Amino acid sequence: MGRYFYSEVDIKSPWHQVLAAFWQRYPNPYSTHVLTEDVLYREVTPRNQLLSRRLLTKTNRLPGWAERVFPAQMARAVYVLEDSIVDPQTHTLTTKTWNLNHNRLMTVVEQCLFEEDSSRPSWTKLRREAWILSAVYGLARPIQEFGLARFKSNQVKAMKGLEYALSKIQAEALPHLHGDQGESSETHKPLPPQVTPTPTQKPKQFV
Question: What confidence tens digit (pLDDT) does each residue in 9-40 have?
Fold first, then answer.
């Protein structure tokens, strides 16, 4: 049957800043397991949607019990495809990621929706779903439990990494907000609200 994960997070930053932080979140001190990221494909559709496909390389440290079961020469790198759709009309970012190798050992499929909060435009809602499956006969259940635990840990790190990127973007925006006092006020453009870094609320998780 596999394992399923669902969470909701309210991010106290406007959607356009969250979108910028999503593209700039690597590298960050919370996601050192992400080694590389490469854009494989990018297209703007007639409906003005941005379609992207990226290849991410991540480390794959096995638990001690798995290292005794699986071959020592098994590759520790995991190659992950990430498809995304940015819709500037609806203010949504939809992503889907899945691993390309080690599929028999474990497959993890994740879907995320970053959406502007219609009742609070300066906030962004994040809904995250994941499915963890294993095809190893006799060991599927413990592998799936391990995969779920690791996914929970990694998604916490992912949120911290996103917040780290957001704080950098907002800090860079502050000098443009204040400017030099001697300059004409006509040279300054107002920034969107919520430029001060703020932590996210505690996520709601359902497993």
Answer: 999 999 999 999 999 999 999 999 899 999 99
CB 121 within 8 A of CB 22: no
Query: What pLDDT was estimated at residue 203?
Result: 52
Q: How far apart are CA 60 and CA 132, in angstroms?
A: 15
Distance from C-alpha of 164 to C-alpha of 200, rounded to nearest angstrom: 11
DSSP sequence for 79-96: EEEEEEEEETTTTEEEEE
> What are phi and psi for residue 57, nearest 5 degrees?
-110, 125
Inter-residue contact 3 to 145 (CB < 8 Å): yes
108: left (phi over 0), alpha (psi -120 to 50) or beta: beta
